[in-house]
Design a protein that fits this description.
Layout: H1 2-17, E1 22-25, H2 26-29, H3 31-43, E2 48-51, E3 56-61, H4 65-75, E4 84-86, H5 93-96, H6 102-111, E5 116-121, H7 128-131, E6 136-140, H8 145-154, E7 158-159, H9 174-181, E8 187-190, E9 201-204, E10 211-214, H10 220-224, E11 231-232, E12 260-263, H11 268-278, E13 282-286, E14 299-303, H12 308-324, E15 329-333, H13 341-351, E16 354-356
Helix pairs in contact: 3-8
Length: about 350
């Protein structure tokens, strides 16, 4: 327990050191003023953290290789891990994509703006730094007015992965960005908590059949209404060792600094008993509270009362909260692998240090 307290104090001290970055609260100055200031920084080659409907993104001019390189440097991101590029209008797609099939337009008409990222062949103007060396580029239009105005005023597409240190839980509040990145970026636009809470779904249209590389805020079931033959990449549910074609495929992601054990409800009581033998204070994340839990005082429970959207919205913030209150480990009960539950399961599996299903 003493080690946990020390770690918590160290984290809080680091946060204090990292409070020099300017934070603009949209609630105080309005969307346009915040977006215009952010756009000035983007055009000058700087980095701006901003909210989308999914998580906070760390934005740079997608057509400027030097600016994009700063994203990788600040995040500590592996160079072969592609970025997602955000647009505010379909007119910007001509800068980014070539060989656009009819199904792409159907998906755009149905789901944009929204948490769907589409992968297609890139144009020559897009730096390979953005795509991790691939000849394809991932693009989406966020469903967030702040993000759309920022892109519009910047007058360029914006490359933006999640605004956190690589591998950490994604930020769903401006405070998360400040804690992770501090004064290593130029501006944080604070638009309050994000709505969806997990990243966008990434759909590769260069594959036959079209393939979901990463599940996210738009479900497989919804996509099937437009693309009936869509399939899941094996990396969604299993370990991936090849070259990443999308963020969140190969590397450990979304992970807290303390151990995270992913477990099916079948083994929950057994795992709780085992984990409490090793650690003094443990957190439990579950969609609904199981009936047969050990009666122990050192188990902190976060149950979402069968509200799967609330679980998605609060997943990353709960992981961060459990770190900050000094817990020693986290147990997460696997949610159903349907709807947005598939995205939650994918994130937990990528973050887990141990799995028992």
């Amino acid at each position: 327990m003493l080690n946990s307290i020390k770690q918590n104090l160290i984290r809080r001290f680091i946060v204090l050191l990292h409070r020099m970055v300017e934070v603009l609260k949209v609630s105080k100055i309005g969307i346009d003023k915040a977006a215009m200031k952010g756009a000035q920084i983007i055009r000058k080659g700087g980095l701006v953290a901003f909210p989308t409907e999914t998580v906070y993104g760390l934005g740079a001019n997608a057509l400027d290789e030097d600016s994009v390189t700063k994203i990788f440097d600040v995040k500590g991101r592996p160079p072969d891990n592609p970025l997602i590029v955000h647009v505010s209008s379909t007119e910007q797609l001509d800068l980014l994509w070539q060989e656009v099939p009819e199904v792409a337009y159907k998906l755009i008409e149905t789901f944009w703006p929204g948490p769907l990222t589409i992968v297609l062949p890139k144009t020559e103007i897009v730096p390979y730094r953005v795509t991790g060396g691939l000849d394809t580029i991932a693009v989406r239009m966020p469903k967030n007015t702040i993000a759309l105005r920022l892109i519009e005023y910047s007058e360029v597409p914006i490359a933006a992965p999640s605004a956190n240190k690589s591998g950490r839980p994604s930020p769903t509040k401006a405070e998360d960005v400040v804690k992770d990145l501090g004064d290593s970026i130029d501006l944080v636009i604070d638009g309050g908590p994000t709505e969806v809470g997990v990243e966008s779904t990434v759909l590769d249209l260069t594959k036959d059949p079209p393939t979901i590389l990463r599940p996210g805020g738009l479900s497989l079931e919804e996509i099937k209404k437009v693309v009936p033959n869509v399939t899941l990449h094996p990396a969604v549910l299993n370990k991936f060792l090849g070259r990443p074609e999308s963020p969140g495929m190969r590397y450990r992601h979304y992970a807290p600094e303390i151990p995270l054990i992913l477990v099916s409800e079948k083994y929950l009581v057994e795992v709780i008993n085992d984990v409490l033998k090793k650690y003094e204070k443990v957190g439990l994340i579950t969609l609904s509270t199981p009936k047969y839990l050990p009666d122990v005082s050192n188990l902190v429970i976060r149950s979402f009362r069968n509200d799967i959207k609330a679980m998605a919205r609060n997943l990353f913030s709960t992981l961060r909260e459990f770190e900050e209150i000094g817990l020693d480990a986290i147990i997460a009960v696997a949610p159903p692998k349907e709807g947005i539950g598939l995205a939650i399961y994918n994130r937990l599996k990528k973050a887990a240090t141990d799995i028992k299903e």
